[in-house]
Amino acid sequence: MKNMNILLLCSVILSFLEASCATSYDGGSGSQADPYKISIAQHWIQLCDTSADWNYHFILTEDIDLNGVAIRPVGNIGIPFAGSFNGQGHSINNASINLVDQSNLGLFGYLGPGGLIRNLGVKNVRLLGNDHVGGLVGFSNGGTIDSCYATGLIEGGSYIGGIVGSNNQGKVLWCFSTVIILGDELTGGVCGWNNVSLPFVSRGNFWDIETSGILVSSMGMGRTTAQMQTLSTFLVYDWDFTGESINGTTDTWRMCADGVDYPRLSLEFSHMGDFECPDGIGLEDLLCLASRWLANTPETIGSADPNSDNKVDLSDLEYLSKYWLK
What we know:
Blueprint: H1 2-21, E1 36-38, H2 41-49, E2 57-60, E3 64-65, E4 84-86, E5 91-93, E6 96-98, E7 108-111, E8 116-118, E9 121-128, E10 133-134, E11 137-141, E12 144-146, E13 149-155, E14 158-161, E15 164-168, E16 171-173, E17 176-182, E18 185-188, E19 191-195, E20 206-208, H3 209-212, E21 221-223, H4 225-228, H5 231-235, E22 253-254, E23 264-265, H6 267-270, H7 283-291, H8 298-301, H9 314-323
């Protein structure tokens, strides 16, 4: 009997320890159909510290603030991040990493083949590293970065980019940055170094020659600040904006008026219930949601999918209700 009690006690203790060590985040199982949910800074720290999870799937369910939080990059050359991370239009704010002797530095240090980061904003990032430093990804080796943006300050040696420091045969789609970049060589607003086999890589890529002070680049087309804040600059290169259908109805980009701001991703607005121009939530957004109700393709969904689950339904109506008339 005594031995049985000891075995029972050991079993209870083991179960407790397994439950305590289990990766829980804010729910989910890490599969593509049921991704882990990240909603607070502690969940991000957990991801940074748990390399065994770097091939699973994640979604960001709230904006998170990393001000004053010690973090390290997710993914490295030994164990790349090869899963997926869907920001759902949310942002990671005030992240700071100061590792002056380390390369492959970013919120994601090394993005491996098959790795995917999309619909994510990085606001007011502060990064200080060696080489291959990016606002979102330090080094992408065959990964995909889709519909993301970054703001802040990045400093390093070589291969310094606003979105990704070095992109090797990966994809960087529909991204922009307004990052201040300080580097010795091979720097860029989106990519510091971009090794891709696709033709016409510079077509439709732009940078501001006035704010950057850079007049020539093989990876894009320089424009003045006034031109960068004019809708027609981008329409002639097939950029798909809300409020027009000539270039498609996916509505990736948004610019409600000339001379106000650069193009921004529609997801920056839609995750607050603002699906249509003008800025702010009102009747036009309700009409947009109604016109795309139960849509399930990018062309029919447009900007009315704030949680990026590829369908327009009650979960999207909740976003509109939360911010209605604010």
